[in-house]
Amino acid sequence: MTNIASMKAVALKEYLPIDREDSLIDVELDRPSPQGRDILIRVQAVSINPVDVKVRSPKDRKEEQYRVIGWDASGIVEAVGEGVTLFQPGDEVYYAGSITRPGSNVQFQLVDERIVGHKPKNLDWAEAAALPLTTITAWEAIYDRLGVSKNPEDNAGKSILIIGAAGGVGSIATQLANLAGLTVIGTASRKDSADWALKHGAHHIITHYDDFASQIEKLGLEAPEYIFCLNSTDKHWDNIVKALAPQGNVCSIVETKGPVDLTKLQDKSGTFAWEFMFTRPMFETKDMAAQHELLNTVAKLVEDGKVVTTLTERLSPFNAANMREAHRRVESGSMIGKLVVEGFDN
């Protein structure tokens, strides 16, 4: 029986290859208490993303205290701080959290209420945990960075190219772009990933191994007004510039290994923007609560059957061995949809 003042967690002190048993380990930590606008969440399920793998990946650094990672979860509000107005104990929630705070690979997590949403009522814990990080990323990229209108009538005849349409973010982006009335062109490298993207809202599939512009032209389509890059910005940059419509907008979530030549967008008066879903919580921006609002909006879309979860695999119970296996699968780069670890073995 776990002490009431402690909690189970999966954590690290060293950044090691995932085949090392000590890369992620089972530990017990002190249970935190909420203050201010924080809520304490009893975690039920956690989704694993490329950011988890990137943060955990080998590096020449050691932590003095156990570090808990993980940024995608669902759970139950256990307690609230004195400044909380959006939630109360017993509420079922889903959220991604902040990369600057301890993560969700733990039984009880403190999260600012402004970046938490009410869990879709028709989803179980794992199905809900698969959504937050990718949903926030796709929503912010499409509506905040690319400037797409939420009114489908405004987008008649317009298209978006989503590079990496079958991944976690791509699977949500295709759905949101479809709802916005855009013609969705997705890239995929295999038949199973192409089928997945088509199932989740892409209208056309091209390969990211060949020239985008010529493939789009062969489909009888105009150049896309919007391009959302979810795979190797460096590799695809010239292809992106060539494919973009004049006065079009480009957004990427993939950092570059070196500089890219933005002047190549000049002739087209093209716009480039980054999307990093942790920006709002990292800097506690004035519009930080926009993440709470968008998660609630998407929960309603899920309940109405307009957006579906992208969960494809589950592992249980929640422990270090299963979390290492989850990291191995995500690290392979061949995942379609999302992998979730659920169920603390109490």
TrEMBL record:
<dbReference type="Pfam" id="PF08240">
    <property type="entry name" value="ADH_N"/>
</dbReference>
<keyword id="KW-0862">Zinc</keyword>
<comment type="similarity">
    <text>Belongs to the zinc-containing alcohol dehydrogenase family. Quinone oxidoreductase subfamily.</text>
</comment>
<dbReference type="InterPro" id="IPR020843">
    <property type="entry name" value="ER"/>
</dbReference>
<dbReference type="InterPro" id="IPR011032">
    <property type="entry name" value="GroES-like_sf"/>
</dbReference>
<keyword id="KW-0479">Metal-binding</keyword>
<dbReference type="InterPro" id="IPR051603">
    <property type="entry name" value="Zinc-ADH_QOR/CCCR"/>
</dbReference>
<dbReference type="InterPro" id="IPR014182">
    <property type="entry name" value="ADH_Zn_typ-1"/>
</dbReference>
<dbReference type="InterPro" id="IPR013154">
    <property type="entry name" value="ADH-like_N"/>
</dbReference>
<keyword id="KW-0560">Oxidoreductase</keyword>
<dbReference type="Pfam" id="PF13602">
    <property type="entry name" value="ADH_zinc_N_2"/>
</dbReference>
<dbReference type="GO" id="GO:0016491">
    <property type="term" value="F:oxidoreductase activity"/>
</dbReference>
<keyword id="KW-0521">NADP</keyword>
<feature type="domain" description="Enoyl reductase (ER)">
    <location>
        <begin position="19"/>
        <end position="341"/>
    </location>
</feature>
<protein>
    <recommendedName>
        <fullName>Zinc-type alcohol dehydrogenase-like protein</fullName>
    </recommendedName>
</protein>
<dbReference type="InterPro" id="IPR036291">
    <property type="entry name" value="NAD(P)-bd_dom_sf"/>
</dbReference>
<dbReference type="GO" id="GO:0008270">
    <property type="term" value="F:zinc ion binding"/>
</dbReference>
